[in-house]
Amino acid sequence: MSTKPMRQQVEEYIVELQDTIVSAFEKLDPNAGHFKRDSWIRPQGGRGQSCVFPPSSSDSDASSTSSILEKAGVNISVVHGDLPPAAIKQMRADHSSLPYDAERSLPFFAAGLSLVVHPRNPHAPTVHMNYRYFEVTDPNEVDAEGNSKILAWWFGGGSDLTPSYLYEEDAVHFHQTLKDACDGHSPILFPAFKKWCDEYFYIPHRKESRGVGGIFFDDLCDAPHKRLPGESEQPDPSRPSSLEDIFKFIKSTGNAFVPSYLPILEKRAKAESTEHERRWQLLRRGRYVEFNLVYDRGTKFGLATPGARIESILMSLPETARWEYMSEMGSEEGSREEVLLKVLRTPKEWV
Amino acid sequence: MSTKPMRQQVEEYIVELQDTIVSAFEKLDPNAGHFKRDSWIRPQGGRGQSCVFPPSSSDSDASSTSSILEKAGVNISVVHGDLPPAAIKQMRADHSSLPYDAERSLPFFAAGLSLVVHPRNPHAPTVHMNYRYFEVTDPNEVDAEGNSKILAWWFGGGSDLTPSYLYEEDAVHFHQTLKDACDGHSPILFPAFKKWCDEYFYIPHRKESRGVGGIFFDDLCDAPHKRLPGESEQPDPSRPSSLEDIFKFIKSTGNAFVPSYLPILEKRAKAESTEHERRWQLLRRGRYVEFNLVYDRGTKFGLATPGARIESILMSLPETARWEYMSEMGSEEGSREEVLLKVLRTPKEWV
Question: Which segments show compositional bias classed as Low complexity (chains A, B) (predicted)?
């Protein structure tokens, strides 16, 4: 059992996971050139590395390019700073161990990996993943090794798939891989986090989901969780609830990314596609932009944070998106576009 | 002097203005096909007409099309309904004549024209305009002609220009035309509304304006206006403050649209352009999407309103937008892209 502080364990893990994932994409498309590795320092405390594709853009038309990926980013960030009283007050809803004092800020630490991959082929789905660890400490209580006392900690994250054209077997494979990763820790996790994912990635003004789902969760710690069944008094004894056990669960889901997505990408990237299918893909990318800019909490929080790294936050946006007034695409009964819309309007249990 | 109720006068005016504007665009590009006229009924009360270009989209690549406009919408809507107490409470900040009762909704009437035009040529600027009239009435006090007593009324609107490449003479012409329209009513209007425009169409996370400005105002009525100088006690005697006089001002600015913009469009639509310039234009369109989805009050309000007509609200979005991670475009000193960014970072007095 490791005796390193969790913040250090998480940092080491996400550095390694970022490298594994980026290498897997680069191996899949060796002619496409490497991701650009872009390290940055946060003046207020912390650092990060963005790995982005394409490494640079040119004036030539996007359509002339033959790479598997159109736009992708795999980011890690490890930051720390002071949490103002207003933010602490809000967090107390899920973390009652936090002391609130209107005059007192508290140090926080946050480390996470987030990725969004938009492939070029309309038959290959977009994927998103994010895992993060958050810690609030007491600056006045420091142990013999110099580590501050942890007042509250939690993990959050998830992974979800956004196809333009539905391949049921892809949705099943993606969900099954995530379910297996979750079930290795407790059977209650996957059903709860799949449901949460369907609820979170929803575009109210379009009355449709962003994609076909996956898992989503936040505030997972050693306290009862309102999203998990039967946890009004204490955590379900079957599920990971200690710092170390939840971290093991996070590693299982993070490690599931490559096997959940790369086989799908490899298969669909080679498919023939038409101008019609490309147009539909770009309309769907418009919906992705709508969700991320209007509803996504992380994006909204990031854009409103002074000094935030805007380029990392908006890395999730596609290279190209399209809007048509009253587009007829998707309305033809029995069309492949309509098949997707039906599933987005009524989320499905894939496994 | 007309004795028709203002709501009827406004409706007649915007119907006529919409026709004038759409005809002017159609005349400028006779080979492009007509705008699509799309009338709609609001089940909860009211109607509207969207005039949109292109009339339909096809699978063929956007680059193969030769029309002057890429995407445009000129919408009118005339709607009525009940304003819930919470909305009335908010409005009282600017309209103290409104009675507030936590139990009581009040009838409202709203009529307006809004347009967004995205031309194809990167040298031709995008333009936006919106004029609207809002009325709250007392359902219990009805006069001999059957008209409810007006408890509060106001006009709002404006017009602004968003180029991808700066032509100073275009910015000057656009502002001069608007200034002349304003100055015919009072010299205090243009300076105040130009400033408001620069403040409103600002993208905080990019630290830049959406475009090169124009005019913007709201809540213009017979009460002192906090944006107009010296109006702490009563309206400046030089400016229009009666219902009829403000409507005359609105008509002057609405009528100024065609002369403010069409000559610019006609000139720039014929310019030669490169792939490099097209790419920059699409990046700028990405910024337009960011402003409209993240900050624009009308869009945010519309998306959050149950039963709102989403296709009309999102008509403002461009056909195509582009995002690049850490794009180098605009960073080369002395480039035409940098010239635009400089002006967007420090708004300028054009006239």
Answer: 56-66
